[in-house]
Amino acid sequence: MNIRNLSLLTGINAETIRSYRIKGLLKPAKKQNGYYSYTIEDYITLIHLRKLRGFSMSLDMINRYYHTDNENELVSMIDEEQSELRKQMAQMELELRLLEFEKKHIRQVGENGQNIYLLDAIDEKVDYYDLFDSEHFISDNNPFSDIYAYTSPTLRITKEILNGECTERMIPIQAGFGAYRHVIIENHLPMPTSNYIIIPKTYCICQIITLSRLDRMNLMILKPLMDYAKQNNYIFISDTTGYLLRVQIKDDQTQFRFRIRAAVEKRV
User: What CATH number should be reported for the domain holding residue 205?
Assistant: First the structure.
């Protein structure tokens, strides 16, 4: 049987079959014209290969699998593959929870709109800034490069501004990213030594804002947040942190929708 007919019979791409032959997993006879003739043995080997690939076994592992006659080694390889699949399942479960978390925040926007509300933080937050100037992050050993799914872009507005007068003026802001302390601990990440702020685990006042630039903003956007604090006799005890709810391109301009929050306590 030629490779085209074998491909039609098995539903496996001819290039894939050829790669299996090159790797030595299939043993077709080479004819005088240079083409290969595949037999029933190659067919059976191929459908078994497809089954093992369906278990996410790598070709290297399958090659090992086919070249051992030690049953304990075969079982060990299957154990190894099961362990890897369990890791993938755990990762997928985590990603499902993160997506549910993302959905919850998006729905919260619809429920609250521009309303101001109190939030009881679930953990202390660590936010990182001045990222472009930090050798800690711009390096081959960036400890956070693999966990961005568990962090969120943040937005920093100082507590001095929040506790001041709200007037029509432009104020400086900073964008960075942040992670809950338990995420840092669970992933064995180093605590920062500079360019960071800590948002304590306590009550925070929240506001949802939309910005088109992340280096400055009109302070009047924060008037609802600042008025709420004054009306309820709160003082801000931290800079803001943030959670990026969405990125939207509108009229060819990128807009960022954040839920910002800052820790507060009652004035004495």
Answer: 3.20.80
Has residue 220 been placed in a domain?
A: yes
Q: Spell out the SS3 assignment of 208-223.
A: EEEECCCCEEEHHHHH
Tokens coding 108 = 């919260």
Q: Is residue 101 part of a domain?
A: no
Same domain? For 126 and 192 the reply is yes
Residue 88 lies in a domain: no
CATH at residue 48:
1.10.1660.10
For the chain, how many structural domains are there in total? 2
Tokens representing 57 are 């076994």
| Token couple for 113 | 């709109």
**Which residue segment(s) compose the domain that 141 sits in?**
115-266
Q: Which amino acid does the sequence have at 183?
A: V
Judgement on whether residues 256 and 165 belong to the same structural domain of the protein: yes
Shared domain for 150 and 260, answered yes or no, is yes
DSSP-derived secondary structure for 116-171:
-EEEE-SS-EEEE--GGG-TTTSSTT-TTTT-GGG-EEEEE--HHHHTS---S-EE
Tens digit of pLDDT at every position of the chain (268 positions): 899 999 999 999 999 999 999 999 999 999 999 899 999 999 999 999 998 998 888 999 999 888 888 889 989 989 998 998 998 888 888 778 777 867 776 676 555 445 788 888 888 998 888 776 656 565 666 666 666 667 788 999 999 999 999 999 999 999 988 888 888 888 787 776 667 889 999 999 999 999 999 999 999 999 999 999 999 999 999 999 998 888 888 888 999 989 899 999 998 7
DSSP assignment string, 53-102: HHTT--HHHHHHHHT---HHHHHHHHHHHHHHHHHHHHHHHHHHHHHHHH
The DSSP bridge partners found for residue 178 are 127, 152
Residue 234 is which amino acid? Y
